[in-house]
Design goal:
This protein is of the alpha+beta class. Helix content is about 45%, strand content about 15%.
Length: about 650
């Protein structure tokens, strides 16, 4: 796991190109503290840099990597699984390897299959491959967007990097927050392919960007190579016995976990009190000879703390269990500020800060790799909003009403952020999907109180912009028409919130902040391609979400967890006790006072001051959850301006 950065240009490379490239990659030191490498080709206007976190092939795996004739150059951030089998097959066909790393297989596969090579790559990755014969640069991102990769297109050059900060380190890349992205972050939903910064694009999951030089100009083509495709409603095979689906899930997950335990360094597990991470630990413990090191976050608020179940699971598997207890002083202050710098976007809950603290602890314990449980809810129908859509649109009215009331009661703690207290709809989603997915409805309500807080200049600029429409427009109609409501809910969430939230400030960005690689075994595309064949009523059965996964993992789960309903893993919000209120207020005083708000020019200072007063005086639990989420977004946007816009202005003026 590493960090990559570079660019290709039609203009002559200056003599100090190597120094510029070092500046860009130095911004990624946290992603790769174990080594670095550079490729500079003045004749092609090509500069490629790499920062290495050594996990596989500790001795000879340095990058960039080159083809035998040195015409093709590769830099990789990520892991390719099943690489030993692929290496063996390629070697028998004449390939000559110069390292023992997993990354090198991409070069040989490309030489044999061209751009179709991506279909043979299994894992999480973001990489750059330059083809010297075609004068072509290919940027590729994994199927779910587990690993980040961004790019910026200028008139005579194209810049790329694992994180935006690496691009902004180049003097030719401007630093400016994007007004539309600002509005989206306030409502917690980024448009796929965008970033918080104007002009800087995120490569979409399952896509590659093909940059070819033709007649002195760059042709930039975006190509989809994989998508999460559910069968049409009537195409499920319901003649297959339930046990076959259960066995299929078990077999695919066990294979995926086995691959993710492959490393030349120790591998641990993240462990919450949920089915997903407990399943990971259960499977890892069953195949690994020595006790697995498990890492758990514990909060100082009983309603949000799941450590008791995690302890029970750790004892059941005889894991070496590490518990990190977090309080207000851990979730706010400097840790909060640092997390925003790493995430490069806003977050609605300090869970991202908690995970940053956890990755730091993992690093301190001498671990570079953990297996995690992200992705299970997306594939097996785990989120309350998914269940709500199933009940609303696929269940008889009499049965649905009672179950929906039960769902609302069991998720009362999170109403305002996870479930909306009233049904909302939007014409764009109604036209595209046939209904407005429940997962977006709380954020539609947040938008109503967030938009008026913007500065008048931004309000005027965005007056004709509909962020809900923009999100709906990115959904592929062919992937939702004729589908079951649960499939539509899972697909639309996976194409938006999974990459923009769960895998960002809940995954790679806060893990790699402390040089620690997370491996979400559920998000293996072989697991996903099996999961989408499972009929919806086996994913959500009655009131039981992830039923088929529960049955597949029943032997390794404690009974209390096997029977337990989905509980959102979230840090206690800022309004839940006095210590957090005080800690949050310090952040507001330091970064969201009138002077800072006026300097950033994002929000109207008077309206922000009134919002803070209303937040302090609010007593309604649902309203507080919503305002607490919005408060985090407001703070994060102010911090993004400080971290990146003001910081670049200072550098430019030196």
């Amino acid at each position: 796991m590493c960090g990559i950065a570079g660019y290709i240009t039609n203009e002559p490379l200056p003599d100090h190109t190597r120094r510029i490239l070092e500046t860009m990659t130095n911004e990624l030191e946290h992603r790769g503290p174990d080594g670095h490498g550079f490729h500079v080709d003045p004749d092609r206007g090509l500069a490629m840099g790499h920062k290495r976190l050594s996990i596989i092939d500790l001795e000879t795996g340095a990058q960039p990597l080159y083809s035998h004739d040195r015409k093709n150059v590769l830099t990789v951030n990520g892991e390719f699984y099943d690489y030993k089998r692929i290496r063996g097959d390629l070697a028998l066909r004449g390939a000559r390897f110069v390292t023992k790393s997993d990354s090198e297989i991409a070069l040989h596969l490309y030489e044999r299959k061209g751009l179709d090579f991506v279909h043979d790559l299994r894992g999480e990755f973001g990489f750059a491959l330059y083809d010297g014969r075609e004068d072509r640069l290919v940027l590729v991102r994994d199927r779910f967007g587990i690993k980040p990769l961004f790019y910026y297109v200028a008139d005579e050059a194209i810049y790329y990097g694992s994180e935006v900060k690496a691009l902004l380190a180049h003097p030719a890349v401007p630093a400016e927050l994007d007004p539309r992205a600002t509005l989206h972050q306030l409502m917690h939903t980024m448009v796929p392919g965008t970033s918080a910064f104007k002009g800087i694009r995120a490569i979409k999951p399952g896509h590659m960007i093909i940059i070819t030089r033709k007649n002195g100009r760059f042709d930039v083509k975006e190509e989809l190579y994989w998508d999460l495709t559910f069968p049409e409603r009537n195409d499920y095979n319901r003649e297959v016995p339930n046990q076959e689906y259960i066995d299929l899930v078990r077999a695919k997950l066990l294979e995926s976990v086995n691959f993710r335990l492959e490393a030349d360094v120790p591998v641990g597990c993240y462990l919450s009190g949920g089915i997903d991470s407990c399943s990971m630990l259960g499977m890892a413990s069953s195949v690994q000879q020595s006790p697995v090191k498990a890492f758990t976050i514990s909060f100082d608020h009983d309603a949000y703390d799941e450590s008791k179940i995690a302890i029970e699971m750790a004892e059941r598997t005889q894991a070496d269990h590490e518990i990190l207890n977090l309080a207000a002083e851990d979730l706010y202050g400097d840790n909060y500020v640092k997390t925003v710098w790493h995430a490069e976007r806003t977050f609605y809950n300090t869970l991202g800060v908690a995970k940053w603290c956890m990755s730091r602890r993992v690093h301190e314990c001498g671990y570079k790799v953990v297996v995690t449980g992200e992705g299970a809810d997306e594939l097996f129908g785990g989120y309350p909003a998914f269940k709500n859509d199933f009940l609303l649109h696929e269940t008889s009215p009499d049965e649905a009403e009672a179950l929906r009331k039960k769902l609302e009661q069991s998720n009362a703690l999170f109403r305002g952020a996870i479930l909306s207290e009233s049904q909302m709809s939007h014409e764009a989603f109604e036209d595209k999907c046939g209904f407005t997915p429940s997962w977006i409805q709380p954020w539609m309500q947040t938008l109503e109180i967030a938009r008026p807080l913007l500065h008048d200049n931004l309000l005027e600029e965005l007056s004709d912009y509909d962020p809900i429409q923009a999100l709906a427009d990115t959904i592929d109609t062919k992937q939702v028409r004729g589908r079951h409501a649960l499939d539509i809910a899972q697909y639309t969430w996976s194409k938006t919130m999974l990459e923009g939230q769960i895998l960002n400030w809940g995954g790679d960005r806060v893990d790699m902040a402390n040089s620690m690689e997370s491996r979400p075994a559920f998000l293996d595309h072989h697991v996903a391609e099996a999961a989408v064949t499972i009929p919806p009523e086996l994913r959500v059965r009655g009131f039981t979400e992830k039923w088929v996964l529960r049955e597949a993992m029943k032997a390794v789960l404690p009974e209390t967890l096997y029977k337990r309903q989905k509980f959102a893993f979230m840090a206690p919000p800022g309004h839940t006790d006095e210590r957090k209120r005080v800690a949050l207020q310090k952040l507001i005083n330091n970064h969201m006072d009138r002077e800072h708000v006026e300097a950033a020019g994002i929000f109207d200072p008077n309206r922000i001051e009134q919002f803070v007063v209303d937040y302090k005086n609010d007593k309604d639990s649902v309203s507080l959850v919503r305002k607490d989420a919005l408060m985090n977004h407001l703070l994060c946007l102010q911090l993004l301006h400080e971290h990146f816009i003001e910081a670049k202005q200072v550098v430019s003026n030196v």
